[in-house]
Every structure is written in structure tokens, then in C-alpha cells.
What does this fold into?
Amino acid sequence: IGPGISGLLIAWFGTGPSFIINAFSYIAVIIALSAIRDEELHIESAPQIDAKIREAWAYVRKRTDIFAVMITVFFAATFGLNFQVFTALMATAVFDKGPASFGSLGSIVAIGSLSGALLSAKLDSKRSPRFIIAFAALFGVSVSLTAIAPTYFTYMLTLPIAGALGLTTMIAANSYVQTKTDPALRGRVMGIYLTIFLGGTPVGSPLIGWLSESIGTRQTIFMCGVVTMVSSALIYLLLRERLFASNQN
It folds into this structure.
């Protein structure tokens, strides 16, 4: 929803006013946080944080299925889920478009993401590490396809596919980790998952920008798709025996 709304705002009002509108949207969050009554919070005593984190890491390493999902998500999120960077580069550097066209691309990606959310709901019973890895590989292929789109119009047609596959992969991964983790460790394991999911962005985005200037925008985006696809294939090949044993258990 966010990219879609931002795309429309950029198209209607321009880039600067859209940032101002986004800043005002945080007022609702601040009001909600200020409404929390601290005296009603029930905080239980717990062991040291370091020990709790080590326990969660040990659990993830032992659970091959969860470990495989997390590594898959890391590569897909770091190299594939950079639509804001990709669309900005393609719109300006490749197709020589302005802010309005860039904003429209954000809306188109959002349409694909919404389709991915609906698809993920229908495929809820089929979620597994193999399913997640396969969709991550397909997502990588779709990202590479966006890089070779010859025209702005064909680029617009490829974006919803990439958006749908990307969000389907992430929703499936998030749901799998949450539902398959021991309830006693779920909070800590999800903390590790979110760190892996978001941790690659500070590295991936600057790297994509630098590569785009060095070897070209299309080549960079195509390579990001290939990295996502190949990493998914390697994860499956290296861990498939352990994944099969984990499923049997």
C-alpha cells in the first residue's frame, strides 16, 4: 500500500511535498505510542539478554529448515527487494522519465504486491522451505526480466510480476518462521529473522547505486536478479538432504 500511495502523491504533488506529507503521517504513530500506559505493562524477570540471543542462534542453526529460509530471505531482500532503487534508476537513467513517471512505477509495483498477498493467502497450506526457495528463485528471474525490458511500457508490465513473486516469497517466509518456531523462542527467533531481512539493505542499496554507475543500470539490476536466483538454487542444493531429514522428523 505504501509504495502505491507514495507513487500517486509524487505524481500529483511532486517529490518534496510528498516527503512533507509522509512526515506528518508519523503524528498518528506518536499519538498511539504516547497513549500507552506504562503502569499497566507487566514485565517479567528474564535471564541475561546475551544468553537468550545465543540460545536463539543455537536453535536456528539446529533447525535446518528455518536456517535455509532465513538465508534465502537475506539474499532475496538484499539484492532483489530494492524496487525503490531499481525503479528510480530505470525511470531516470534508462528511460529518461521524471518524478511523475517514477511515482507511477511505485503504484504499479504496489499492484503486484497486493496480488502477491492474495496469492500467498491461497497458497497458505503449501508453504514449506522448498516452496519459499522456489519462489525466491522465480523472483530472481522476474527481477532480471525487468532489467531487459526494452521500453518504459514493457518495463511497467514486468513490475507487477516481480512485485507479486517478491511479496509471496516474503509472506511465506515470515509465516513459516513464526508458525514453525518453538513458542518459547519465537520472539527471539523473529528478532533474528527481521535482522537478517532488514540488515542487508544498508549494504545492498549503496552497492546497487555504485554498480549502476560503474557497469550500467540494466546490468546491475540483471545481476541482482541472477544473484537472488543462483543463491536460492545453491541453498537448496547444499541443504536439500538436511531439509528432507528435517521434514521427515
Remarks:
- The CA atoms of residues 13 and 37 lie 38 Å apart.
- The chain has a mean pLDDT of 86.
- Residues 2-238 form a domain with the Growth Hormone; Chain: A; fold (CATH 1.20.1250.20).
- The chain has eleven helices and no strands.
